[in-house]
Amino acid sequence: MGILLVGAIVIMNIDNLLRIFLARRMGNIHPLITLAGVVLGVEIFGILGLVLGPLLLSYFIVLITVFERENRIRRRTRLGHASETATGAE
């Protein structure tokens, strides 16, 4: 019984640590984002939060990155049109 208990504790801890580092390597996700996603996901979704938490948090970060990139492109094109009309009016 003791060997089973120690084995389960060791295997679960190694699994938790490896999952964080593999997620970072495979998906370029920072381990703190994964950890925060797991903690918040379990609080909100229960046991499904182990998967849904980091996934939703990663999707949110990607969404913010895409939004920021699109706004940067729009700002450049808007400034480009403004400078063309300013130089064309002179």
Automatic annotation (TrEMBL):
This protein's record includes keyword Transmembrane: yes
Keyword Membrane on entry: yes
Keywords carried by this UniProt record: Membrane, Transmembrane, Transmembrane helix
Transmembrane regions: 35-67
Protein name per Swiss-Prot or TrEMBL: Permease
Organism of provenance: Hymenobacter swuensis DY53
